[in-house]
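Re: export button greyed out
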Amino acid sequence: MGSNNGSSICLDLSIGTLQFSNSCMKQHNKINKLPLIHGSTKMEEQEIYSSQIEAEMLDEMNRVVAENRRLSKMLAAISERHRALRAQVLEMINSTSSSSSTKPAPKRRNCDGSLGYPQSVNASYKVNCAKEEVRETRPRISRMYIRSDGLVVRDGYHWRKYGQKVIRDNPYPRAYFRCSFAPVCPVKKKVQRCTEDHSVLVVTYEGEHNHVQPLPGDSLNCLR
DNA sequence: CGAGTTTGACCAGCGC
DNA sequence: GCGCTGGTCAAACTCG
Ligand SMILES: [Zn+2]
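Workaround output, generated via the alternate export path:
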């Protein structure tokens, strides 16, 4: 979870071009090897038809090659931007962690301030979570998006509800759960409905279980 | 009767 | 300092 630190994006963008050109060439050879029988109108028709197909295939192939080239350029540009942003974020983390060594870190609202789809996660959240990875002292926080009608999340663990709160800008309340193995297990979770899509539950897990899953059969229909 | 849930009160951080 | 807000506590309540 969140451990995908790979800076290089590797995508195979050769969308069947080789295969396509090979089959095209085979067909081309086949057509060329056809015995020529002069005066045969049927053969002429076939030849015209074949050449039409050939021309269409070549057109298609050129189009796909051009598309492939365009996508490769786009990917290169995106990779370059990703690398630059990553470097920037790391620089920010280093500067803030060195400067905040004198200041005590705030006790609350570290990673839970914003709630929304993964695409709309803001920059400060990303920076905070990156900080989370850098210093291993704070409990691990992970967020999941689950499509569910009720507030029940089948994640294989037993939870005890210890609070519910109406949160600003959300008509649905947020529920607070502790692992039923507490205080031995320190894991907590928060469950609330997504403001954008009310059929989606936003589940935030805090910490890691130090015991086996009591209900391993329960699968998590996660949307990530 | 014990375990789990509900819900109002309380506490602490943060912005103004 | 004050009000707002999110997180937690704990008494009351429910359910098997
Ligand atoms: Zn646990």
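The helical segments of chain A are 17-32, 41-99, 123-134. The button fix ships in the next patch.
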